[in-house]
Amino acid sequence: MEIPYYKKDVQIVPIQDIFEQITKNLKEETLNKSLRDALIFARSIIGTIREPLLVLDSNLKVVSANKSYYKKFKEKKENVEGSYFYQLAEGIWNISKLKDLLEKIVPQKTFFEGFEIEAELKDIGKGTFLLNARQLDDLLEYKKLILLAIEDITESRKLEILTKKKLGFLLDSTNDSFVFLNNKLELIEANNLFFKKIKIWYGLQKKSIIGKNITEIITDYKKLKTYKILSQVIKEGKSINWEDVLNDARERKVYLDARAFILDDGVGIIFSDITAKKEEEKWLKYLSFHDKLTGLYNRAFFEEEINRLSSNRQLPLSIIMGDINGLKLINDTFGHSFGDKLLINTAKLLKSVCRNEDIIARLGGDEFIILLPNSTEKDAIHLTNRIRKECKESTGTRLQINIALGTSTKNNLRKSFKTMLNEADNKMIHRKLLESEDTINSMIALLQKSSKETSYNSKGHSTRLKKMAVLLGTISKLPKVELDKFILLATLHDIGKITIAKKILNKKGKLTEKEWAIVKKHSEIGKRIASASPHFIKIASEILFTHEWWDGEGYPKGIKEENIPLLSRMLSVIDAYDAMVRGRPYKKAISKKEALKELKKCSGSQFDPSLVTLFTKLINKSVY
Q1: Which of 168, 286, 332, 574 is deepest in the core (most CB within 10 A)?
Q2: What's CA 342's distance to the chain center, in Å?
Q3: Using one digit for the tens of pLDDT, what is the confidence trace for 363-411?
């Protein structure tokens, strides 16, 4: 059956279509009511959100704003709705990049998050805001809108900055370097100590390395196990501790103690520069087997080597023991620095004549020993002769090296090392006794030469004093032994002055208290020098008291009259006379007559009166 048609404005519409349209309209009306209710509910929720929100149209005009916006930025509704968003809030949103991002949202269906703005507003002060925006469909009016959310992150940013400052302070307060890399091993940040280290190692500045891959900063980094470890940390997400060593720009080794740990977006490294610690360990290890002064092996190493060399492979095994002659006297005379230099030169001499496989050790003090594997007695004796020859030709110090040597050899394991040491030591002592006179003579010659070089009135002084000593000693009827002592005293009475600087001895003006105190010590030093030698010890006391006065006002002990040794009293008279007639740096020479007058004037105070009288008679009859 056909459905009838109705006429309407000439257009004939089937009844079926009319019903369908009525049904559709009814459905849309129901739907629109639901949408309205939903949108009203949504807007009521937006209105209660604490975060400031703006709804913009495609032209970036404000359609609406929530209560939080008005409250935060203290603006009125009539000044906000219908205005361009960038005209709001004193124009703080008027940023070209921000406008570009918003204008692309509707046509390109894009969005953005985390656009940060720092601004200062008259009513709310300085603040930091984070903007997020996305498209919003208005289903009622079929428009495309933009929802702009504004988050005030001022306080959280302050806290972040404060936290970062505190963290930076903490990191910079440690003795460790902190490095933060991203997953590509590019440098993101580090503490100040790291940048200081990099500048020292490679001469690189902070600004030139931020953002660079660690392999560009440390050129040999890929060669290090550190590179593999960092890759492993990133891959496995676990912390690892290790030690490594790198070469800086000058090819110096740098030792590191490091720990790497995973971060959200990369890896962190904490490392300590343990180069000093490693060098100290190496030095301590070196010192455990070496003599610090000479660089030779020490007793501990020597004793270890005894066990190693106790095998048939090393036979015949020889040793040479050596002892520097007169080292105590040298130290007392010239100071320990001179004695140390002599020890160093002796060590150099021994190394220069020995083979690479020979073991040279300083046992302590003035004692040395040489272990000679696969060396016969003849070889050992030949080496001692060569050492003596080199000693005679030595010129490293003012004093020739003089060392007593003794040898011992074992051809089988039955001979103990203790026996060898005793045998070599006995031979060395025997040689020392034989060579002691040569050593003393050498020392006397050097001391006399040194005394002449340092004494202000040295030119002919010693010779003149010896001649006057012979005359005064003879007229005083000194026994031969005492006369010999007097002559030796005349030669070496001022030996202690070799330790006094020439600028003090030759000073033309008055000495300061400090300088005078140094000068007054020379008689005590002279006594120590003399006491160190069997040849000089007999005049040690006389040297000490040469500058004592008859009335007790002298130095160093302040003794007087007969308590002062006779030879010291006699020496003070002839020494003073020679100084007066020859002159001093601070006083011109005077005549013989004036000098005798001065001696008489000081008779009873500085000088023994009877000796002044005797010496005056002697001088009046002689050429002096």
Answers
A1: 574
A2: 29
A3: 989 999 999 999 999 999 999 999 999 988 876 666 778 899 999 999 9
φ/ψ of residue 118, rounded to 5: -110, 130
pLDDT (0 to 100) of residue 15: 42
- At 76, is the secondary structure helix, strand, or coil? coil
Instruction: For residues 171 and 163, give the distance between their C-alpha atoms in angstroms, rounded to a whole number.
Output: 12
Residue 245 DSSP SS3? strand
Assigned token pair, 551: 């009335």
Cβ atoms of 466 and 487 closer than 8 Å: yes
3-state SS assignment for residue 179: strand
Tell which residue, 186, 221, 253, 188, has the closest CA to residue 229.
221
Integer Cα distance of 114 and 95 in angstroms: 15
Looking at residue 1, what is its pLDDT? Answer: 38
Angle at 559 (CA atoms; ends 469, 472), nearest 5 degrees:
15
Whether the bond between 316 and the residue before it is cis, its omega within 30 degrees of 0, is yes
The total of other beta-carbon atoms located within 10 Å of residue 316's CB is 17
Structure tokens at 241: 């501790």
pLDDT tens by residue, 172-186: 567 788 888 888 888
Residues 501 and 503: their CA atoms lie apart, in Å, by: 5
DSSP string over 368-437: EEEEETT--HHHHHHHHHHHHHHHHT--SSSS---EEEEEEEESSTTS-HHHHHHHHHHHHHHHHHHHHH
Could you give the 3-state DSSP secondary structure of residue 254? Answer: strand
What radius of gyration do the chain's Cα atoms show? Answer: 51
Amino acid at 105: I
**Rounded (5°) CA angle 120-121-124:** 110
Q: What is the DSSP letter of 510?
A: P
Question: Cα(154)–Cα(52) distance, rounded to whole angstroms?
Answer: 14
Mean pLDDT lowest for which of 27-36, 318-327, 594-603, 613-622? 27-36
Backbone angles phi, psi at 362, to 5 degrees: -100, 115
Q: Which amino acid is present at 239? A: S
Q: Is residue 20 predicted with pLDDT exceeding 70?
A: no
* pLDDT computed for residue 552 by the predictor: 95
**Extended beta strands in 100-202, E state:** 112-121, 125-138, 143-152, 177-182, 187-190
- Quick one: tokens of 302? 């020597």
* Rounded Cα gap, residues 232 and 369, in angstroms: 54
- Tell me if 589 sits within 8 A of 582, measured CB to CB: yes
| Full DSSP string of 10-27 | TEEEEHHHHHHHHHHHHH
Could you identify the residue written with the tokens 């003795």? 175
The 10 Å Cβ neighbour count of residue 91 is: 10
Q: Could you give the 3-state DSSP secondary structure of residue 237?
A: coil
Q: First-to-last CA distance in the chain?
A: 176
Please classify residue 533 by burial: count the beta carbons closer than 10 Å to its beta carbon, then call 0-12 exposed, 13-18 middle and 19+ buried: buried
